[in-house]
């Protein structure tokens, strides 16, 4: 066996055994007033701590195998945090330089994690937002400063979830899943999982989540039409639910305090939506994505808020 073949097998081993294969757990206390089964897929158990480990690894490895990039090159990506951290991890592992562009209002933990993996971080203003970060990434690529992987338009993003997340959910539920619930940012997760699950059972309902007008929920977006990810196919989503920011944050805290699952606000939104469905569909088997870990949000103070007691 050649050294190159050995490296390929080592890479495949990493993908098969360390990225993905995350646990699926049943919510016990939060869903106890419903007859439905609500299951949470804990993507924070990935090596760099989020669901974005899957597409980050696949985008870099597939581009490398196609000869589009090679170790030593500079990669550029606009990110709100999790994809950037995951890309920085894989870039460090494979020997790439990583430049990440993100809005300056993202949590300090996210910024620190990117830099810990050796990435260069460029911040745009909150007003410029992710749209401004994406524009700057493309401008830098045009100026020859690096290669943009473009998670918003890269089929390898979708493929990562078609090949791993979807099959895992199908197997872990023994094919009994009736609803899949996912926050939508790049939309790679929901596109890939929807494609796989609908091939197994077209009746499975795919539910996408976006912030309601005026809400700001880290990791998910309500994109202007001009910036809608090109990998997004509306036909693959059966229902879109608008998530109130206050409910996402309250549910995030309840998830930690009542289920022992410490996660971010987009995960709170996913659980809130899943509980709404559970109330309406008593026979449902609902799987929602817990995108990341809550330790990335501690500095925001969101976990320090005292919520009113229910019923008071």
From TrEMBL:
The modification N6-(pyridoxal phosphate)lysine is found at residue 52. Residues 17-292 form the Tryptophan synthase beta chain-like PALP domain. It catalyses: O-acetyl-L-serine + hydrogen sulfide = L-cysteine + acetate. Pfam families: PALP (PF00291). Its EC number is 2.5.1.47. GO terms for molecular function: cysteine synthase activity. Its cofactor is pyridoxal 5'-phosphate. Keywords: Amino-acid biosynthesis, Cysteine biosynthesis, Pyridoxal phosphate, Transferase. GO terms for biological process: cysteine biosynthetic process from serine. Pathway: Amino-acid biosynthesis; L-cysteine biosynthesis; L-cysteine from L-serine: step 2/2. InterPro entries: Cys_synth, Cys_Synth/Cystath_Beta-Synth, CysM, P-phosphate_BS, TrpB-like_PALP, TrpB-like_PALP_sf. Pyridoxal 5'-phosphate binds at residues 82, 185-189, 266. The keyword Amino-acid biosynthesis applies. Gene3D superfamilies: 3.40.50.1100. The keyword Transferase applies. Belongs to the cysteine synthase/cystathionine beta-synthase family. PANTHER family: CYSTATHIONINE BETA-SYNTHASE (PTHR10314). NCBIfam families: cysKM, cysM, PRK11761.1. This is Cysteine synthase. It comes from Acinetobacter larvae.
């Amino acid at each position: 066996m050649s050294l190159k073949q050995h490296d390929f097998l080592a890479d495949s081993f990493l993908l098969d055994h360390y990225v993905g294969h995350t646990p699926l757990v049943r919510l016990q206390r939060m869903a106890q007033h419903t007859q439905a089964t609500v299951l949470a897929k804990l993507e924070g158990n990935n090596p760099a701590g989020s669901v974005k480990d899957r597409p980050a690894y696949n985008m870099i490895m597939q581009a490398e195998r196609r000869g589009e990039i090679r170790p030593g090159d500079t990669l550029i990506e606009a990110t709100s945090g999790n994809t950037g951290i995951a890309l920085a991890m894989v870039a460090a592992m494979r020997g790439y330089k990583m430049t990440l562009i993100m809005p300056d209002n993202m949590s300090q933990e996210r910024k620190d994690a990117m830099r810990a993996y050796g990435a260069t971080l460029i911040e745009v203003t909150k007003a410029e937002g992710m749209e401004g970060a994406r524009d700057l990434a493309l401008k830098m690529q045009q100026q020859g400063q690096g290669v943009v992987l473009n998670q918003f338009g890269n089929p390898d993003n979708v493929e990562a979830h078609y090949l791993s997340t979807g099959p895992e959910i199908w197997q872990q539920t023994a094919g009994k899943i009736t609803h899949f619930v996912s926050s939508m940012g790049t939309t790679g997760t929901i596109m890939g999982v929807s494609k796989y699950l609908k091939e197994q059972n077209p009746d499975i309902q795919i539910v996408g989540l976006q912030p309601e007008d005026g809400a700001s929920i880290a990791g998910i977006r309500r994109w202007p039409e001009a910036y809608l990810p090109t990998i997004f196919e509306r036909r693959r989503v059966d229902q879109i639910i608008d998530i109130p920011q206050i409910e996402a944050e309250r549910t995030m805290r309840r998830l930690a305090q009542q289920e022992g699952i410490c996660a971010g606000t987009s995960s709170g939104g996913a659980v809130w939506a899943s509980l709404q469905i559970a109330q309406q569909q008593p026979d449902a088997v609902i799987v929602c994505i817990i995108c990341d870990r809550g330790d990335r949000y501690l500095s925001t103070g969101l976990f320090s808020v005292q919520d009113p007691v229910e019923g008071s």
